[in-house]
Design a protein that fits this description.
By secondary structure, the protein is an alpha/beta fold. The chain has helices spanning 29-39, 69-77, 97-103, 117-123, 136-146, 151-163, 180-198; strands at residues 3-4, 17-22, 46-48, 52-53, 65-66, 81-87, 90-95, 107-111, 127-133, 172-175. The chain has one domain (3-195): P-loop containing nucleotide triphosphate hydrolases (Rossmann fold). It has seven helices and ten strands. It has a five-stranded mixed sheet, sandwiched between helices. A five-stranded parallel sheet has the order 3-8-2-9-10, with helices on both faces. Helix 1 (29-39) crosses helix 7. The model is unreliable at 6-13 (pLDDT under 50).
Amino acid sequence: MASLDSGSNVAQPVGGTFIVLLGPSGSGKDTLISHARREFSGSSDVLFVQRVITRPSDAGSEDHIAMTDDEFDAAIDDGQLSLTWAANGLRYGLPRSVEVHLAAGRVAVANGSRGAWDVIRQVFPSAVAVEIRVDPEALASRLEARGREDAVEIEARLKRASDLTDRFEADMIIDNSGQVETAGAVLTDYIRQAHEGRNGG
């Protein structure tokens, strides 16, 4: 279960659109974000957020900022993080750069947490939830294939995926059970619509 870290605080309402991908570990959120990032590589108006995580930089596919617990605590004390939460034995944070980007009326995209969604909405009122769904069988296969967890950890993640299914109402649902390119195109179009909407396109 995710929980709000004691270092979190509430930001002021901002004018941009914060697109937060939510879904179980192994659903392909990072892969879809990487796909969309390539499509918007020439645009400074769309920020793909690097989360801060207490996990080594070479652990997993996510392009994140790795910190130790002590470094994470220091970042909180220094006011470097807008929001922090804990899940699956790790601590996660979103950098202050998200606030600056959204305050300029731009679009930001991040990998979020279903268990922390209520807190994310509290801190970022402009946040919209994009739920990434995948068939349970495909989810189990992906978790096994990536080799980051043992059988016990995989079972725990699958249970958490089931427990959090109805914890929030999604603004957009993307099925990523099939080809990544298909789901990636849907996400890219959603981001583009948000971007064009903010810029009168």
